[in-house]
Every structure is written in structure tokens, then in C-alpha cells.
Design goal:
8 strands, extended, three-stranded antiparallel sheet, 8 helices, 281 residues
Length: 281
Amino acid sequence: MIVFLECAPGREVDAVDGREICAMSTPPDVPDWRTATPPELPSDGDPPDLGSAKSPSIDPIPLSKPVKKTPLPPAMPDGSVSLMSVDLLLEHPAADCIPPMSPDEYEALREDIRRNNVREPVTVVGQGEALDGRHRIRAAKELGIDEIPCRLIKLPDGVSAREWMLTSAVQRRHLTAGQRAALALELDAYREARNAAAARQRATQVRGTASSATVTTPAAAVSRPAAEKSRDVAARLAGASSRTIQDVLKVQGEAPDLYAKVRAGELTPNAAIAQLKRQVD
């Protein structure tokens, strides 16, 4: 028996002596896979030319601009004085209760700071809210001074920032007598309103816990007219005479426009009273 071994495509050899006994040709009806050209595909099915294809450009995802966080002021013991960046200081929302300096006063302060730097510490609470010194802070920024002395305090229990500012302002030397009187009246009115609100709250609590109880007002609390009490208290706070307080109180009640000028230091109480009389006549 002869066994044929395939040695190459289309050829066979004798397994005994290795002689070639047949040279087979590729049948004409069967394409030679080595030389045949593959059929063309329809136009709608042409494969993409991967060699010439370019990867689509992908724009990098834009990174959000980093938000600059304002650092908190350095921790300081209550009442201590330390240098603080003017960029960290914020004007307290209640600062508008204090009249601003006149342009001449501010220019004098600015020149003094230019020569001697800020010498009086600015009072701050919380996260750097300035209770005073807004003109010092402004001048320091304009002059390029980066740090100024600041005193960190904690407000006493029951004392608001507005009350602290008014109390401090009436003791300042650069305010006129009329300005101190006006602020002292506002401070007294603020305290009266606060005390009245506290009394109403206590009365509500008493009525809620003991509906049969009768809430009465001590006689001492209403023994004097409110205006008289305001004059006395304001005179003591402002270090002004009772007559000055009386004049400012009259202008406040009858001529708000003149009172605004007294409060700003543009008119003295006497001058405001004289103008008020002329308006009435």
C-alpha cells in the first residue's frame, strides 16, 4: 500500500522513496487563495480606511478657576493686641449708626497715619468685624499699609454691637457736643426699646404659664416722663448739659433734616434751634 504525504499545496510524494509521483494542479473552478483578489464590497458597505483615519481631537475638560478663600484672622486671646492684615478686616453692618468724619477730618487723620502709621488699635469681634476704626482702615489701604494693630474683644452678655458702638462714640473727643448729644439720645432710645421688648416677652411668658396672674408695671418705672428721663440719661452719657440735650431732642422731633445736620456735625444745637424758629415764624 502506498501512503501519500502532502509536502506542498497541490503536490504528493511517495512515502517509500520520497519520489514525486503526482503534480496536482489547482482546479480551474477553485480560486487560489494565494493569488485570488477578494471581491469588492458594495459602496455602502466599504470598511473605513483605518490607515488614513485620524483620531478626533478631544478638547480637555476646562478646570474651574480656583476660588480664593479669605483666610480667617489669627486667633488671639480676648483683649489682646496683634497686627492684622487690613484685607481681613470687615466693616460691621451696624457701623452706619456712627456719623462719618468730615473730609477735612479724614484728610488730617490720613496725613497723621502717613507720618506715624496707625497707633490706636482697631476693635474687632468675631471673624474680623471692626466695631470702630473704619477711617483708619480706609486710610491704611490707601497708603499701602498691609497690617495695623487690632484688639479682639468679646461683647458682654446682653450688649449688642450697635449699643457698644454708640456708647464708645459718645466718649470720643473728636465729636461735637451736638453729635454726642444726638448719639446719646439714640443710645438711650435703643436701650429703652430693648428693655420694652424684653418686658413684653416676660409678660407673654407669665401669661402663658399663669393665665390668671395679673402683670403690673412697677410705679418707679413710669414715675418720670420719658422725655425727662431721656434728657437726664443722655446728658450723663454725652457729658453735655441738659439744655443741649433738650435742644437736640426738640430738633429731632420737629425737624429731621436739621437733626441730620446736627448729627453729622454740620450744625450746632443752638444754630439748629434758631433755624427751626425761623421756619416756624
